[in-house]
Amino acid sequence: MAVTVFKLNGQFLHVAEGLARPAGLTAAHWQVLGAVLRMPLPVAGIAREMGITRQAVQRIADILAANGMVEYLPNPAHRRAKLVAPTEQGREAVRRIGPAHAAFADRLCEALGDEWAADVHRLLRELSMTLDALASEEDPA
């Protein structure tokens, strides 16, 4: 399973790079921006949500901040862990990706069939939740 998922991750990253490039983003930039579109999060929260390291998120968030795509806001829950929030420029970059992303998703669902695509999505979410549960059993902290 892991080798197949690693390959699938690479394939999705390749597609994401192609979708993000016209908006001036990388797949990693898009991933971090996407994590904070609904609400600002601290770097550690983005890392947990996306399943990547805090250090990688910090590096990307700093690049996005330097490019005016995100800003750091005070975090009422933690004095030192600032919240990452998208700027209007960051939101606009993600909006520019939207049409091509939707077109690709439609092509993928058409190729798989809508019902099978929904089943795959459900199974992948269940696999992710199961892996989270197993990881929390191993590391209760």
Automatic annotation (TrEMBL):
GO molecular function terms noted in the UniProt entry: DNA-binding transcription factor activity
InterPro entries to which the protein is assigned, alphabetical: HTH_MarR-typ, MarR/SlyA-like, WH-like_DNA-bd_sf, WH_DNA-bd_sf
Domain of life of the organism encoding this protein: Bacteria
Domain HTH marR-type: 1-132
Taxonomy of the source species: Bacteria, Bacillati, Actinomycetota, Actinomycetes, Glycomycetales
Pfam families: MarR_2
The protein's name in its UniProt record: MarR family transcriptional regulator
Record's signal peptide: none
